[in-house]
Amino acid sequence: MRGGRSAAEVFDDVGARYEEAFGHVPGQLAALDWLTARLAPGARVLDVGSGTGRPTADVLARAGCAVTGIDVSAHMVDLARARVPQARFEQADVRTYTPAGGGFDAVCSFFPLLVMSQPEVAAALERMASWVAPGGYLVLATVPGDISDLDIVWMGHEVTVSSLSPAEHLRLLGAAGLEVLEHHTALFHPEGAEPEEHFFCHARRPA
Fold it and tell me: Which Pfam families match (predicted)?
């Protein structure tokens, strides 16, 4: 258990409060607009760290995509199934998840990789990139930095977090065969929490 508790336990407790604090991140909503403009109806999309299902799975499902969401928290999965019944959700960990059949037209990863070690973050990026079908997209966001096993208090919970620098994200995605189309950082101030720097990246696997 990192920080004394697993990510699943922390997010079981946070539950719907996560959506209240992080459900309207402007950069994430803009990334979803960017992605839905490029996907055909019926596109297969994987939402990694799907949380309550909002906004990511909800926006994508409303755009006509076939959405699968995975999350380590059983409570989050229950919330998502109730909030976004037109998508399918399962309790799974990106570090061990194996998609059933073929790649995805898009993989979304909005902030799910922080409560793990740096090697696990790097491996998860490589795994997610490998699930992107030719011509498909990977859209991700994280709190960037060369951060290894840092103990913090987040939304009232003690957690141990790690991350990678923007440059290392770009290097790993390129090594995994993806073409980075766009990336930027932005500051976000969630309600009831400290301001965060967010790193957004849009990448594509050549057709």
Answer: Methyltransf_25
- Tens of pLDDT, residues 158-181: 888 999 999 999 999 999 999 999
Question: What's the token pair of residue 187?
Answer: 């500051």
Distance CA 29, CA 126 (A): 24
pTM for the whole thing? 0.91
Buried b (16+ CB within 10 A) or exposed e, 162-175: bbbebebbbebbee
Mean pLDDT of the chain, nearest integer: 90
Quick: pLDDT tens for 127-152: 999 999 999 999 999 999 999 999 88
pLDDT given for residue 2 in this prediction: 42
End-to-end Cα, the chain, rounded Å:
40
Q: Is the pLDDT of residue 37 over 90?
A: yes
3-state SS assignment for residue 13:
helix
**Residue 78 to residue 15: CA distance in whole angstroms:** 10
DSSP string, 33-74: HHHHTT--TT-EEEEET-TTSTTHHHHHHHTT-EEEEEES-H
Q: How many other C-beta atoms are found inside a 10 Å radius of the C-beta of residue 95?
A: 13
